[in-house]
Amino acid sequence: MFAPDTLKNRVAFITGGAGDIGFEIAQTYGRLGARVVIASRNQTRLEEALSTLQQQGIEAAAIATDVRDADQVKRAIDQTVGRFGALDILVNNAAGNFHCPTAGLTPNGWKTVIDIDLNGTFYGCLAAYEHLKRSAHGGSIISIITMLGLTGWPGAAHAAAAKAGILSLSRTLAVEWGGDGIRVNTISPGPIGDTEGAKRMYLDTGRGDLERRKTALNRFGAKADVAHAAVYLASDMAGYVTGDNLVVDGGRWLKYVAA
Ligand code: COA
Predict the structure, then answer these.
(1) Which atom of ligand 1 is nearest to 109's Cα?
(2) Domain count, the chain
(3) Distance CA 196, CA 203 (A)
(4) Residue-range definition of the domain harbouring residue 164
(5) Ligand 1 centroid to 46 CA: how many Å?
(6) Could you tell me if the CB of 95 is within 6 A of ligand 1?
(7) d(CA 56, CA 31)
(8) What are the pLDDT digits (tens) for 205-217?
(9) Which helix (H) or strand (E) holds 11?
(10) The domain spanning residue 228 has which CATH number?
(11) Which of 15, 110, 112 to mutate to test the pocket of ligand 1 (most atoms within 8 A of CB)?
(12) Residue 6 near ligand 1, beta carbon < 6 Å
């Protein structure tokens, strides 16, 4: 378990922070002393998530943001600094995805996912840069991707290409911004139960059992598994870790299962 002050005095901005993995990260960061700002598109969902955070005594704010709009992202990050005085951690977690064999994917379907995942991550990094440079703890950027970005992802070419792009962007920024004291890392979750992503990609498509067997540990992961990795990377414990991709997938990417 992490010490309760692991992220004390840190301010974190989390895209997609009202749902699933993003919300789990927000709660976990908050419980470990961080002030958290959650950004998502859906105002109702944001308000519910904010009130849950506040009920736990977490200092938090919520800002409605569509990460496809660079101006909105910049405004939300500037507001975060206006409200809490700093930005120390950026978590690029917002993602869109749907199962669609590539031959049936429209240009706009492709563009929509690239805009949310890859472009949204770039807009976040760009808007956060000057603030992270001034972080008293050293800035930290963490982006949520998947190893399927490296292997290819039949039925989700758009998301796979976007995630591969985020990995490349992160490694570039790790070098470009290392001198500014900013660490840039990614996390690659495997199938995480109780998430919209797992529902859309595996359960709704009848591939839940196959997906479970693909993991070395023979089970889906939990949102907390990813949140704990995100705590480690944001904390001083990972002070010399940058340009890394922390795989939290139960060994899925190493295991071959035909059907
Ligand atoms: N299969 C094929 N194409 C699809 C699709 C599906 N299941 N869902 C959306 N599309 C296409 C649409 O047809 C449209 O393309 P077109 O104009 O050529 O017809 C394009 O994608 C945009 O769809 P739209 O519904 O207008 O986009 P949106 O901005 O309202 O929603 C999505 C974005 C599509 C990513 C939506 O699924 C979403 O909001 N997702 C957020 C949550 C999520 O994906 N979570 C999982 C994360 S792993």
Answers:
(1) 21
(2) 1
(3) 10
(4) 11-247
(5) 20
(6) yes
(7) 8
(8) 899 999 999 999 9
(9) strand 11-15
(10) 3.40.50.720
(11) 112
(12) no
2 found inside a domain? no
* In a domain? residue 188: yes
For ligand 1, the distance from its centroid to the CA atom of residue 158, given in whole angstroms, is 11
The pairs formed by 59-63 with CB atoms below 8 angstroms and a separation of 24 or more are 59/30, 59/35, 59/84, 60/26, 60/30, 60/35, 60/36, 61/36, 61/37, 62/17, 62/18, 62/37, 62/38, 63/37, 63/38, 63/39
Assess if residue 79 is contained within a domain. Answer: yes
Q: How far apart are CA 12 and CA 73, in angstroms?
A: 14
Can you give the pLDDT at residue 163? 98
Nearest Cα to Cα of residue 31 among 54, 63, 65: 54
Please indicate whether residue 189, judged by its CB atom, sits closer than 6 Å to ligand 1: no
Name the residue with the closest Cα to ligand 1, atom 13.
109
Q: pLDDT digits over 86-134, tens only?
A: 999 999 999 999 999 999 999 999 999 999 999 999 999 999 999 999 9
Measured from the CB, is residue 54 less than 6 Å from ligand 1? Answer: no
Residue 84 resides in a domain: yes
Check pLDDT > 70 for residue 259. no
Ligand 1 centroid – CA 87 distance (Å): 31
Q: Bridge partners of 248?
A: 189
Q: Work out the percent of the chain whose per-residue pLDDT is above 70.
A: 99
Angle at 24 between CA 115 and CA 168, to 5 degrees: 40
Tokens of 229: 């990795």
- How far is ligand 1, taken at its centre, from the CA of residue 113, in Å? 7
3-state secondary structure of 255: coil
Within 10 angstroms of residue 103's Cβ, the number of other Cβ atoms is: 6
Only one residue has tokens 């797992």, namely 198
Q: Residue of the nearest CA to atom 45 in ligand 1?
A: 96
